[in-house]
Amino acid sequence: MAQLSSNLLYAAFFLYLLSTVFYAVSITGRKFKDRAGTEKNRAALLGYITAIFAVLTSLGYFAARWIAAGFAPVSNMFEYTAALGIAIALAFVIIYPLYKNNYLGLFTMPVVMLIIAYASMFPREVEPLIPALQSDWLTIHVITTVIGQGILAISFVAGLIYLLAMIDFTKKTKKVKSMEFILFTLIAAVAYIVLGFGFGAAGYEAEFSYVNENNVEAELSYFYPPILGPNEGELITEQGFEPLVEMPANVRSNDANTVIWSVMGGLFLYGLLRLSFRRPVGAMIQPLVKNVNLTTVDEISYRAVAIGFPIFTLGGLIFAMIWAQIAWTRFWGWDPKEVWALITFLFYAAYLHLRLSRGWHGEKSAWLLIIGFALIMFNLIFVNLVIAGLHSYA
Amino acid sequence: MEKVKCECGHENPYGTYLCESCGKPLKEEEGKLANMRYEGTARRSQTYRKNVVDKIWNFFSSVKVGIWIIIILLIASSLGTVFPQEMYIPPAADPSVYYYQEYGTLGQLYYQLGFHNLYGSWWYILILAALGISLVIASLDRVVPLYRALRKQRVTRHSKFLERQRLYAVSEETYADPVQKLDEAAEALKKKRYNVRRENGHLLAEKNRFARWGPYVNHVGLIIFLIGGMLRFFPEMYVDESVWVREGETEIVQGTDGEYYIHNNEFIVEYYDDERDDQFQEALENQQDPVVETYETQATLLKPEAGGTIGSETDLEKIKDHDIRVNDPLTYDGYSLYQVDYKLNEFSKFTFALELDDEEIAGTEFTVDLNDPAMSYDLADGYTVEIMEYFPNFEMDENNEPTTINRVPDNPRIIFEVFPPDLDPDDPDTTGEISFLGVQLNEALTEDNEYAIRLTDADLVDVTGLTVRRDRTLPFLIAGGAIFMIGLIQGSYWHHRRIWAQHSNGKIIVAGHANKNWYALKKDFQYAHEQAGLPYPDDQAELNEEEGGSSENGSTKQ
Ligand code: HEM
After folding, report:
1. What average pLDDT does the segment B410-427 reach?
2. Angle between helices A336-358 and B63-79 (to 10 degrees)
């Protein structure tokens, strides 16, 4: 069952890729006219059908893993992040028929792939549930939240398309720089994944013995060659490569090392693109979206918030409180995870007020939606891995 | 304040922007489009600007201010996550040094600014209060005029009103019988579940008006929720206590005024087993320590029998049995008992025996209950042992005197006095042999002791730590949360849409307004266009944009 579930996730990944290709063809390829002379866009239809199959396959992964583990697969970083990717695809499949906007497909599917690939960088084995997590309310809370976040992610994608289409990349403005930074972040994520798979396939692993923050001798594994070594680190394994810089004891040096690799890899890829095309990366993408209808994309982005915000609130705050009341004896405890869910809620509330009452449409709205999604990812990655430490899960 | 009289004869309150009766704009504004916010009615905050009350009212009713409050709350909340809050640092740590030790100067600053206890600080509460006040005032300011305007909408509208809507069109064709066209349009729109009204050649089709109340409903829910949260400050609303119960024992449930007792039948901890739970094999192998599957207290809730004396544990009546686990508290009468802590293998009884010349004297075994020791033990053959002093959790204090930290027998030490058959323990002039006993400790305190006391057996017991809660604010929070969600869904999943149509000189004029989701309104127009030949309107906001105008004028702001 566990094997089946991971095979289904691989299959889904390739279906998302296929769907991306179809959507790309639907936008760049020639349109076919049928005998009656009306334009038919077969590629878009194929893209949508493929997306539906991809979602079904992903749900197959989810169900198989649920059966194998005996509980919903949303309980560690791999499972939650993969679920987020699937939720984004699900949200797309629901929202696409409302607007039939192919640009949305072209941009959503790669985001889904990126997130699922990112998920698979975390340990993938089925982990037993500690008592606090054995709760139906937890399952309901997490699944509702992830669906809400998936729908909110669509607003981010629409916002991104809006900005890519309207920013004038010929001038060196703050907007251009901000957009380039966003694209760089995405590229660095790709670099992280590619390097991770690369070193993983090569079987790279280095063991260090080092002195940890409590002044105790401990061991640490590296899966990326050590540029940043641990405090008083000593290589145990024979795998070449001595660290260049030694980190202080209170920094988790193997994670810092991974970050360095990703940033360097990202800079390398980004620099390569800039040098070969001599244009901002955004300007390279812009021709793809030159025909997009800005009003429609803006409308989609808002609609996705209108649909996603109540679901996110229900899952991320209300069901979360019900679960916390049962598991932790109080519905609210001000732990970083909860606080950042509240911040996300307040942020989207501010967005709605700015839009409805202060007329923040179009560009301003799009920038806000990018920040909103950054908050969601921040809560998923940074709060889990850095602020809360390793004790917490998704 | 003077009234504003419209062409049509209607007298509008001061501050009205679109005539309440016919919709004709009463003030000229730049741009083509009418500002449809709150239907152009007069709002208190826009009308009175005189005294202090007006000023405060105007301040808090402003959405700009409301958004600032939300943003300030957001930033303040995030500051509290930079370092852990006081409640999450180790319980034994002193915060005044802990933050500096762990996080350096920044940590110290954090502590000095009071950010270690941010969410209970007066200024954080103040922001929440400002949010609540703003919600109340902003909602009141708008809901009344909006209600009046939406209730007494006239079907007959001034042509200027239509012209200034975002969706607007005049038919190219001139119809001989335009009224019949409107009849057809009415039929088509009814099929789309519009509520259609007609009045001397004018048509108003409207749907989902109730969605307009969504924001107000959700704000009311939020206010109730905030009030519920503030009620926490009244002590009688809230019980948060803990009880430790040893296996086999019964304790008063703290916080219930002796109304309830809890009996611990057994406490168990279960671990995952990589053979039984083979799906976790890989993960369990990577883990050095065993992973806990269950913490469970098999508990019985009891209460004193009616008529029994309060405080006597003998007359207890069983209420119910429940296996208390994490995620499965025992709940009764508003109280909940949660599994939160435990202690395995606490000493409960020590068994001793007397020895003479390293030989146990038959029949001299005796057992001391460490939680409730008897002071004197009569043994076989006339031997007696008395406890002179008992330290459940032994420690030497700063004067080097023996003392006990607390009543929990974590490190029990006993001073015994042994009376052989020839000594009378009741005679105040006799002293027996004195020795000091503990785990792996047997020290004679008198010289030349003939008898020795030997620890022969120790009984262990598990102790469960339960938290007792009763939270009378929960009903408010549940009601507030539910109302909030209803309002949120009502305002987000349905959208108020209106279509006006009229004829003039044989031409059909249409206009439409949606408070959001214009796309759906356009689709409805599309349908009416196909079914009834109603003209399909232009999106004047979109036209503006293409002409280089800003999309942020008037009516798109809705
Ligand atoms: C965290 C707090 C708040 C939440 C969650 C919240 C939620 C909402 C939501 C969901 C809407 C509907 C927006 C839409 O449909 O696009 C709304 C509308 C509105 N809110 Fe709030 N709100 C909050 C605080 C405030 C505050 C402090 C004010 C004070 C100025 C305010 C004033 C308004 C107004 C004037 C509207 C528009 C009402 C209408 O269209 O008739 N809100 N609010």
Report:
1. 85
2. 160
3-state SS class at A195: helix
Partner residue opposite B551 with nearest CB, options A128, A342, A361: A361
**Nearest-CA distance from A195 to chain B in Å?**
24
At B28, is the pLDDT very low, low, confident or very high (cuts 50, 70, 90)? Answer: low
Q: How far apart are CA B24 and CA B163, in angstroms?
A: 10
Domain B169-207+486-546 has CATH 3.30.310.80: yes
Residue B10, classed as helix, strand or coil, is: coil
Given 3-state DSSP classes, what are the helix, strand and coil percentages for chain B, each rounded to the nearest 5? 35, 30, 35
Alpha-carbon span B338 to B467, nearest angstrom: 5
Residues B472-505 pLDDT 10s: 999 999 999 999 999 999 999 999 999 998 888 8
- Enumerate the domain spans of chain B: 43-150, 169-207+486-546, 209-230+474-485, 235-344+465-473, 348-458
Ligand 1: residues with CB < 6 A are A 346, 349, 352-353, 356-357; B 63, 66, 69-70, 131, 134-135, 138, 142, 215, 218-219, 222, 488, 491-492
Using the structure block, give the residue that is written with the tokens 């108020």.
B496
Tokens of B391: 């330290």
Dmax over Cα atoms in chain A, in whole Å?
79
DSSP H stretches of helix in chain A? 2-28, 42-69, 77-99, 102-119, 136-166, 174-201, 253-277, 281-285, 294-313, 320-327, 336-358, 362-377
Tokens (6 digits) for B375:
């002071």
Count CB atoms within 10 A of the CB of residue B534.
25
Task: Name residues whose C-beta falls within 8 Å of residue B292's C-beta, 6 or more positions apart in sequence.
Answer: A130, A131, B269, B270, B271, B272
Distance from CA of A349 to the nearest CA of B (A): 8
Distances (CA, A) of B58 to A359, B86, B124, B140, B142: 20, 39, 23, 12, 12
Residue A108 falls in which region: left (phi positive, over 0), alpha (psi -120 to 50) or beta? alpha
Distance of CA B439 to the CA centre of its chain: 47
Residues 6+ apart with CB under 8 A from A265: A188, A191, A192, A194, A195
- Tens of pLDDT, residue by residue over A112-150, are 999 999 998 888 888 888 888 888 899 999 999 999 999
Write out pLDDT tens, residues B281-297.
Answer: 777 777 777 788 888 88
B202-207 and B497-504 strand pairing: antiparallel
Contact B433, B450 (CB under 8 A): yes
Any chain B CB within 8 A of the CB of A342?
yes
pLDDT digits (tens, 9 = 90+) for B310-343: 555 567 888 889 998 888 899 888 898 898 888 8
Amino acid at B391: F
* B279–A69 CB contact, under 8 Å: yes
For the cut 50, the answer to whether the pLDDT of residue A91 exceeds it is: yes
Query: Closest by alpha carbon to A226, among A200, A253, A203?
Result: A253
Task: Supply the DSSP string of B449-469, one letter for each residue.
Answer: -SEEEEEEEEEEEEEEEEEEE
Query: What long-range pairs does A265-272 form, CB within 8 A, spacing at least 24?
Result: A265/A188, A265/A191, A265/A192, A265/A194, A265/A195, A266/A184, A266/A185, A266/A187, A266/A188, A266/A189, A266/A190, A266/A191, A266/A192, A267/A184, A267/A188, A268/A191, A269/A187, A269/A190, A269/A191, A270/A183, A270/A184, A270/A187, A270/A188
The average pLDDT across B77-95 equals: 85
Query: What is this structure's pTM?
Result: 0.88
Q: pLDDT tens digits, residue range A55-84?
A: 999 999 999 999 988 888 998 889 999 999
Relative to beta strand A228-229, strand A245-246 is parallel
Put simply, the answer to whether A131 touches B293 (Cβ < 8 Å) is yes
Q: Check if the beta carbon of residue B127 is closer than 8 Å to that of residue B76.
A: yes
